[in-house]
């Protein structure tokens, strides 16, 4: 609209370029300008956000679980038109801040959460096995100590003591046989689970498995910090290259302004000299 009269709107173009730069920091985009000055901006490979005067929005929605993604985690969606069905763009978003968040969520956080769920579920299951093998203070066969009815998914967040034990601590099992007030063999079995290897197909204890999770978090964080410092240098070089091509050099513009100023002063002096010469000629004629 600002260039309908064939006059370039430089201020608006600068503002548009700045907005594109800010958008590219948030998400990976491709953009280009047509011969008639219309801009086309695409997210990923297929999500056309801007086409001339038309624009489309990105949407987010929670969705079901799939490989690398947990139940309820959001997907990024795109609607090509008002009447079309949303198309998932999550896998196409690989750059910018949003791409980084999606990558750390799907490739690291979800894996870490799955490992925690596996450990919590295995712990609850092993304790239940031992607990159900003995007898409580009422000489009744033991029941489940932990409630694992929710399954492995989300076990680390949902693990809890069974309701009937919360209501009556006398149902906690410690004896291996009935009518044995001093028998604590089942309690010892539960305590000894610390040294058993129920994790990683019988190759790891609970402590080792948890230590691996914590260690992996630390190693990943340290690696990310190292890569961040390295990428800062690369990004700085790329910014300098971009600015050298499309940016404005203040030193160069200052030099040009001085050149224009000197040219203006020289022209003004020439005009002044011509004016004085004309006055002199006219005065001679009158004399």
Notes on the protein architecture:
The protein is an alpha+beta fold. The protein has a domain at 109-196. The chain contains seven helices and nine strands; from the N terminus they run H-E-E-E-E-E-E-E-H-E-H-E-H-H-H-H. The strands form three sheets. The protein has a four-stranded antiparallel β-sheet, with no helix packed on it. A hairpin with a 5-residue loop joins strand 1 (29-33) and strand 2. Helix 2 (96-131) packs antiparallel against helix 5 and helix 2 (96-131) packs antiparallel against helix 6 (206-246). The longest helix is centred in the last third of the chain and has 41 residues, at 206-246. It is elongated and about 140 Å long. The mean pLDDT is 86.
